[in-house]
Specification:
188 residues, alpha+beta, Metal Binding Protein, Guanine Nucleotide Exchange Factor, Chain A, 4 helices, 9 strands
Amino acid sequence: MKTTAVAVLFALLAACSPKAGPPAKQDPAPQSPPVAVETPKPAAPAAEGDSRVKNPLGISDEEWKKKLTKEQYYVCRQQGTERPGTGALLHYKGDGTFVCSACDNPLFEAKAKFESGTGWPSFYQPINKKDAVTERGDLTHGMTRVEVNCAKCGSHLGHVFDDGPQPTGLRYCMNSVSLKVVEKDEKK
């Protein structure tokens, strides 16, 4: 059991770390100053099976289970993680808007998506940080990370890291199952 836990930890660390590659070309043009990111203070780690997912909409657990697929419920409401490289939206190349799969809250524009090599859809910024996502410290699985949740329904989306591209330097590493795409022609 201990060996399995260590193997899972190493697999998660390897999957969520930036992909090694050739050094980026230096642009001789002046760079804009780095964006200051306020890192939330880490919360107490959740006990095994204990969900810290907030529920601002007041939807019961049974209602969430009816509304979401089994995998969506596991990721969005129980802070699970889909296996890297398996998400339906990993290679999405359209120009739609990524919304929360649990409540349809707009989260990310397709133009903010980039290929991180981690196996999960990655974005360098949310649509509107105040209305789209919330962030909080996450000490689970023996790591110090910043969890990203939907600002409207509290669903777990993924984590944010400070190894992304400019202009923000951030990588919002999201679970595909916690997202869905609304194409431009579907918007009202």
